[in-house]
């Protein structure tokens, strides 16, 4: 398959994946702007709609202020509102759309993967490992979620599928000790990239924080600059809970970037905009399905237009 065909395929999957989110916004905007005039009442209705679409209070207020400033008490169509919304969201997202760059100077380049259980963390690690291998890099995985046997098994399946080694231990073993073993093996074998999975049990936040701190301390012993990336995996279907999770993991692990999964399963895709506006963290990639190719680098312009139902002209 050519690169162009891959792009067209991803483009279609992204559009389809965001359909639930875009349909909810498009239908809401169309119903509000049937009377074709922007007044205090329609602005209030629009702001409520945007907040309900998980865009967050700050983004919703900014969009409405922008519209009111230029078009108050003037006729306006639903399409014009969508266009203004896409432009405002595009400006917010453009600042944070940054691919995850692996530096060849690090040996290995360590990526610590964090997130709550069920967010798609282990699957994302598997997809990323495959993509890195396709780029000609050697990869090692570490099954650091040691309290869930299913997480270790899932990572081992991805390891076999991608033909990459997986460092794992017995259920309940010390995650920091496992990270130590993985760093040792990655250094010995000259591996380019080491990806470390971690537990995500927020029910016991203080325990999880201690565990993450221990893992980071062990990694630092091998390389003071590591982990080189600490990536939080967010599940779009959780809506505003994704904002809370980002706050918690920023405190616990000093995350450096975000990946959002399951955008195809929700009408709450706007929460990625809320996260971008509030935290200004790089968004490395988004996922809209289960296959390897359904995880791709984040494109601010395409995402913003598709989220609000604006047709993209090729």
Write structural notes for this entry:
The structure is a single chain. With 314 residues, the protein is an alpha/beta fold. It is built from twelve helices and eight strands.
Coarse structural class = alpha/beta
What is the average per-residue confidence, as pLDDT, rounded to a whole number? Answer: 91
- How much strand content do the residues show? 5-15%
Q: What's the total count of β strands? A: 8
Rg (CA only)? 21 Å
Number of discrete helical segments: 12
Enumerate the spans where pLDDT stays under 50 for 5 or more consecutive residues. none
End-to-end distance: 20 Å
Topology, element by element:
Layout: H1 3-17, H2 19-32, H3 40-52, H4 57-71, H5 78-94, E1 109-114, H6 121-134, E2 139-144, H7 149-162, E3 166-167, H8 175-188, E4 193-198, H9 205-222, E5 229-235, H10 241-253, E6 257-261, H11 271-279, E7 283-287, E8 295-297, H12 300-308
Parallel strand pairs: 1-4, 1-5, 2-3, 2-4, 5-6, 6-7
Antiparallel strand pairs: 7-8
Helix pairs in contact: 2-3, 2-5, 3-4, 4-5, 5-12, 6-7, 8-9, 10-11
Output the keywords.
alpha/beta; 314 residues; elongated
Short description:
The chain has 314 residues and is an alpha/beta fold. The protein contains twelve helices and eight strands.
């Amino acid at each position: 398959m050519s690169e162009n065909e891959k792009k067209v395929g991803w483009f279609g999957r992204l559009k389809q994946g965001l359909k639930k989110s875009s349909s909810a916004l498009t239908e809401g905007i169309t119903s509000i702007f049937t009377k074709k005039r922007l007044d205090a009442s329609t602005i209030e209705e629009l702001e409520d709609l945007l907040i309900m679409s998980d865009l967050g209070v700050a983004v919703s207020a900014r969009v409405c202020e922008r519209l009111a400033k230029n078009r108050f008490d003037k006729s306006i169509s639903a399409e014009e509102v969508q266009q203004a919304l896409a432009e405002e969201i595009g400006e917010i997202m453009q600042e944070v759309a940054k691919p995850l760059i692996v530096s060849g100077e690090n040996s290995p380049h360590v990526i610590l993967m964090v997130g709550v259980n069920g967010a798609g963390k282990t699957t994302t690690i598997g997809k990323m490992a495959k993509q890195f291998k396709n780029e000609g890099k050697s990869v090692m995985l570490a099954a650091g979620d040691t309290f869930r046997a299913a997480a270790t098994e899932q990572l081992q399946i991805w390891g076999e599928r991608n033909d990459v080694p997986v460092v794992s231990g017995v259920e309940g073993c010390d995650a920091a000790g496992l990270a130590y073993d993985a760093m040792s093996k990655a250094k010995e074998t000259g591996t380019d990239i080491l990806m470390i999975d971690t537990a995500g049990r927020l029910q016991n936040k203080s325990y999880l924080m201690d565990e993450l701190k221990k893992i980071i301390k062990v990694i630092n012993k091998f390389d003071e600059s590591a982990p080189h990336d600490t990536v939080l995996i967010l599940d779009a279907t959780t809506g505003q809970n994704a904002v809370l999770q980002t706050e918690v993991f920023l405190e616990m692990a000093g995350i450096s970037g975000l990946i959002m999964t399951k955008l195809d399963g929700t009408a709450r895709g706007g929460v990625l905009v809320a996260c971008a506006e509030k935290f200004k963290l790089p968004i490395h990639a988004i996922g809209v399905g289960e296959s390897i190719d359904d995880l791709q680098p984040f494109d601010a312009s395409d995402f913003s237009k598709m989220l609000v139902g604006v047709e993209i002209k090729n």
